[in-house]
Amino acid sequence: MSKRIPESELIINPDGSIYHLNLKPEHLASTVITVGDPDRVEKVSKYFDEIEFTMSKREFVTHTGSYKGKRITVMSTGMGTDNIEIFMTELDALVNVDLKTRLPKKDHTTLNVIRIGTSGSMQKSIPAGSILASAFGIGLDTLMTFYKAEYSDLEKEVGVQIQKSLGLPFIPYCIQGSEKLLALLREGLLVGNTVTCPGFFGPQGREVRVKPAIPDIIEKLGKINVDGFQLTNFEMETAGYYAMGRLLGHEVMSLNAIVANRITHEFADNAHEIVDNLIQHTLKKLAG
Fold this sequence. Notes:
By secondary structure, the chain is of the alpha/beta class. Helix content is 27%, strand content 28%.
């Protein structure tokens, strides 16, 4: 028999909405597009035929509406896997926990979650301006130290090889994204394996006033090859999405607008246009 979830473990606001996201179950569509930047939510929802609901709390901005007859929610998460852990846990609770009784529901609801974000390339062959779908996410953060998940042999080996290459005191986690959503969304896109970094500067080898401990981290990651499995790009959320998706039973896919190439030092001067192309591609495929 399921146990009631205590008030201290899952916080519900006085109006019945979930704590951080400030949403009630009826506010959420089964297909959720996510972006990091709160200002980018409107850049997605401007293509909706109608918007039925909006909410803003902290970095979490929500618009729910419809596009060509398909109900879609677009939400911002802020940056980093710590935010993604909060976001995915509360998103799941909205559909899989009865917020009044605090009991898990008997029938599991699976959400489709699609991240639209910017990313940098670590391969010379992937120029700025590309759009890439992440088959796997590889976390250089320690989120999965606090959860238990099942990993394939390939996922385990990738983690071990990255640990050896970078000399890390922990094994990074590697997790496959949704094969179903990849098949739906991949047409015309590159497919790669995305590294999730726990920061923008030092963890990505950038030096401003503090010298990184691994200044050549991008070059080292780019050279890793596990039976043909190579790392293609990096950002700050994908692996957290894939890990929480696996734990909670949701379909999750990360789509990346490549706005920089760290090997050639190229940066796209039309980054907003690249992101907009990715937004339109995603909406059309979801409604297709």
